Each structure stands twice: as structure tokens, then as C-alpha cells.
Amino acid sequence: MRPANTGTDQPSKIVGTVWGLLVLNTLGSAGAVTIVPLPRSLIQMVTMGSLVAAFALALLVNPRVRFRASAYVFLLTLLLVPSLISSVDQGAGLGALFRCARLALFVGTLWLLSRWWDGGTTFVRHHIRMYFAVLCSVAAGLVVSPGAALPDLYGGRLVGALWPLTPPQIGQYAAVIIGLTVLLLLGRRTDRKSAAVVVVPSLGLLALTHTRTATLGLIIALVLAITSLVLTSAAARRVFSWGVLCAAVAAVGFSSALQAWFLRGQSQENFASLTGRAKVWHALLAAPRTTSQHLFGTGLGDKSFGGLPIDNSWLAVYNEQGVTGIALVAAIIVVLGGVALLRPPSLSRACAIFLISYCAIASYTEAGLGDASPYLLHLAVAASLLAVPAEAEAAPPAAPEAPRRRVPRWAQRTEVT
């Protein structure tokens, strides 16, 4: 018999909608040329409107502004300080102040959602659903117009033909939901058919993007996550054993094909310089800075230097929020990673380890840890997985057992008359 709907699932649906709006906000407004040209102003209106709507819905479902204590969101709140100082002190303009307001609204929405962070996999499922929907739009664009989805401008790599998404973005989304779905399958929180529906097409899209960072991040982070389950899960031990065997066979039998895929037709020199990223990094570090710029950066911008993308989270944070921002971002990774390591083995811990590891690996060639981005959403999911259930927090400490009074042996004998 199906239970009557009492309305208790309504907050959960609204929370899922809020999470979807946050995902939409972090998709960005720059990318490939779409089939139907979309003005950048329209895209920015949609993404910013989604953030405002997310905050309003979160406030609607949490009108008393109740939230859980979270070191992650607290550190993000502190990150607003160098962002504001640099944006105001350096005269970065209205664009920097607008980005600060966006980050503040983003962090405020996470505070409102933290009320539902209970160490469960609810937000993992929201995350998979939303990014799988994004990948479905990418696949639809590939079917409708293969030429637009695999343009020569990006070397034949897969891009978003319906919504402007770059190959690294698509690769990131695919890698994250593949890893989370595999872990849910190992934890018996989903069935094989449902997992295959997500994993198989996502793997195909990841391969078409030729994104090395996402591929390596997926492999390394998934290995670390599965390793954390090896001692308590027979399924994890089987997957780990088969994974090692398949990796050895692939390394021996398909080494040339794998090397060609990773090189993407580039020369060894271009590959060694990380597709020109190293030149931008050296120029950024060599640029003269004042003491204020060194401490607090030059203000939130578009993560570029000299008109070229920085493509490194740590250097982007240093450029925009200074060494203060680097210290706060490093604290976020260290705190989340330390809490994950101290937790007992579980599915939630494994998913958190996967997300934290992936973000740490991708931070070397991708920017986003210092501003509202998918990487901050990945880490927010990790924080929700590491949160202590509300019931455990609310439970009073057990009263100490009263010392037992010693009874003489003669009094322990039962007298029968």
C-alpha cells in the first residue's frame, strides 16, 4: 500500500531545485559557438537569475534561517574578506564588486542549505542528476549537429552545441558523476542498470572531450575512494583487483593508443608546457606587486592574466585574493581532507574522499577554487557527506553509570523459611 503524501518530501524537492539552480549558475557564460547563437548578456542574465532564485527558494524553505555549523562554509565566508578588500582597495571596478556580490549570495545559499547536511547521500544524488542533465544537453547537441559539437577550433574535441560549454567543463562533469555513481553502486545505493545509464554515456562523452585533467583526476580520485572501502567492502576489493588487472593489460596492450590520446596531436614541447599554461604562470609570478596586492590580490576577475586564462586555481587565487586567499583555500582542502581521514570507513566517507581528491588534482590545471564554481559545489557535497547527523548532535551525552554498591557475601544468600 502506498503511503499518503504528508508533504514532508516538499522541502527535499525544493532543496533539489535550489541545487539545480546553483549548478546552472556555475555553468558560466563563455564557451563554444552554439547552434543557435546565444548573446552573452542573455546567458549571464540566466545564470545570475538562477543564483537569485536559488537564494530566494532556500530562504523560502528555511525561513527561520537555521543552519548547521560548517567549517567549509565558514572558511568560504572568510574568503569574502580578501575578495572585498582587494576589489575595493585596488579599484578593480564594478565588475569585481559584482563578482563579490555573486560570491556572497552563493555562500549565503550554502549556509541556508547546510540545515539539510546530515552525512547522507542526498546531495550526491542531486549532484548526479543535475550534471547528468547537463551532459544530456551536450549529447543532444552532438546528435543534432556533430560539426558544431566537434569543431576544428577545439581540435575536434567535444563542446556544448546547445549551451556554451568547453571540453574541460564537460570532462569535469562527466568524471565527477562517473566516480560518484560507481561508488553508489559499490555501496549498494543504486542498481547496475541505473548505474550503467549514467556511467556508459558519460564515459563516451569524457573520451570525446580528450580532457587529460578530468581523466587522471577520475582515475586517481576513484582509486583513493575505493581504497578507503577495501577493508570493509568485498565489492570494493573485487573492483580494486579487477581495476589493477585491467590497468596492467591496458598499459601493456594499448600504450601507444593511450599515449596518442593524451598527446592529442601536440608536440612533446607543447605537452611539457601544459599547452602554454606554464608561460602564463611564469609571467604572473614575475609581475611586480605591492604589499597589498601580495596579501589580498588585485580583486575578483575572470581568472585571466594578460588576456590569457590562468588555468590554475592556486595562481588564480593568488592573483585575485593574494596569499590570504591561498591560505584560506588551502585550509578548506586540509580541513575537509583531515575530517574525511578521521571518519570511519563508509560510503559517505568514500564519496567525500573522491570529491576532495578530484578537486585537489584538478586545481593544478583548472581555476575555480576561489570563486563561485562547480569545484566549490563539489566540495560542498563533500562537506554535506562529512557532516554529523543532527540526531547524533542533539542526543544528550550518556549519563555515567552509577558505581555498584558492594554487597557482603552473607547478604547475597537467599534465606528460605
Largest β sheet strand count, sense and barrel closure: 2 strands, antiparallel
Give the percentage of residues in beta strands. under 5%
Radius of gyration over all CA atoms, rounded: 25 Å
- How large is the count of helical segments? 19
Low-confidence regions: 1-8
* Helix/strand order, N-terminal first: HHHHHHHHHHHHHHEEHHHHH
Structural class designation: mainly alpha
In whole angstroms, how far apart are the ends?
60 Å
Structural description of this entry:
This protein has 19 helices and 2 strands. The termini are far apart. It has helices at residues 10-25, 40-61, 71-89, 94-113, 122-144, 146-149, 167-186, 192-209, 212-227, 234-253, 255-263, 268-272, 277-286, 291-296, 313-342, 347-362, 374-386, 390-394, 409-412, and strands at residues 304-305, 308-309. It is an all-alpha fold. Helix 1 (10-25) crosses helix 5 and helix 7 (167-186) runs antiparallel to helix 16. It is globular. A two-stranded antiparallel sheet has the order 1-2.
Secondary structure elements and pairings:
Blueprint: H1 10-25, H2 40-61, H3 71-89, H4 94-113, H5 122-144, H6 146-149, H7 167-186, H8 192-209, H9 212-227, H10 234-253, H11 255-263, H12 268-272, H13 277-286, H14 291-296, E1 304-305, E2 308-309, H15 313-342, H16 347-362, H17 374-386, H18 390-394, H19 409-412
Antiparallel strand pairs: 1-2
